[in-house]
Amino acid sequence: MSQHTCLYRSLIVAVALAANACGNAPTQKVGAGGTAWQMGNAPRSPVAQEKANEVVLFALGLMNIGYRFGGKNPEAGLDCSGMVNYVFSQSAGLELRGSAADIAERGRPVGTGQIYPGDLVFFNTMNRPRSHVGIYIGEGRFIHAPSDKGKVRIDSLTSGWFATRFEEARSYFN
User: Fold this and answer.
1) How many domains does the chain have?
2) Whole-angstrom Cα distance, residue 127 to residue 111?
3) Which of 108, 109, 110, 149 is deepest in the core (most CB within 10 A)?
4) Domain span including residue 44
5) Cα 162 vs. chain centroid, distance in angstroms?
6) Residues sharing a CB contact under 8 Å with residue 103, sequence separation 6 or more, in sequence order
7) 83-142, pLDDT tens digit by residue?
8) Using alpha carbons only, what angle is made at residue 150 by residues 148 and 153, rounded to the nearest 5 degrees?
9) What are phi and psi of 14, to 5 degrees?
10) DSSP code of 151?
11) Is the confidence at residue 19, as pLDDT, over 50?
């Protein structure tokens, strides 16, 4: 898929998300184990907020890209850490190489009440800490490249399989 196609799809998704957000007051949703997920605007500098928004929009443009273990670009397929590095490098100029656990080491921990779009969410999916990573997109949802069902998709942090395996969130923006 060309970069132009990704950007076009991202723009369409952004318009849809913006239209959906109009008139919605910030709320809290409670996920597995009573975890509160805060909705609303991130307390970031304008530059950091812009980069975080670009990360989310770019990631949304990768929807339905095929999964491939060790995959680092859309043409070859993506795994979770490859997707995160590709998105951050292309949209925010940040290199986040390595495994999900390696990526987590370089981020700033944030509480579940302080997680904002563009932050990374980490899961224990293989009986080892930080074995999976995704990008938080807001409203209790994240985008990621799971090996099951084989395509980049959006899942919930507040219900379902991933909600029970959530470990932590980390930010790479000030």
Assistant:
1) 1
2) 22
3) 110
4) 3-171
5) 13
6) 81, 84, 85, 96, 97, 120, 133
7) 999 999 999 999 999 999 999 999 999 998 889 999 999 999 999 999 999 999 999 999
8) 90
9) -60, -45
10) B
11) no
Which residues does 4 contact at the CB level (< 8 Å), separation at least 6? none
| Contact indicator for 144, 135 with CB cutoff of 8 Å | yes
Q: Which two tokens stand for residue 75?
A: 């043409």
Kindly tell me if the per-residue pLDDT of 51 is higher than 90: yes
Structure tokens at 65: 């890209």
Which residue has better confidence, 143 or 44?
Answer: 143
Give the DSSP letter string of 11-37: HHHHHHHHHHHTTPPP-EEE-GGG-EE
Strand-pairing partners, residue 169, are: 110, 121
Q: How far is residue 67 from each of residues 78, 145, 149, 153, 166, measured CA to CA in Å?
A: 5, 6, 8, 10, 21
Active site residues: 80, 132, 144
Helices (H) and strands (E) in the chain, counts: 4, 10
CATH number, residue 32: 3.90.1720.10
DSSP state of 108: E
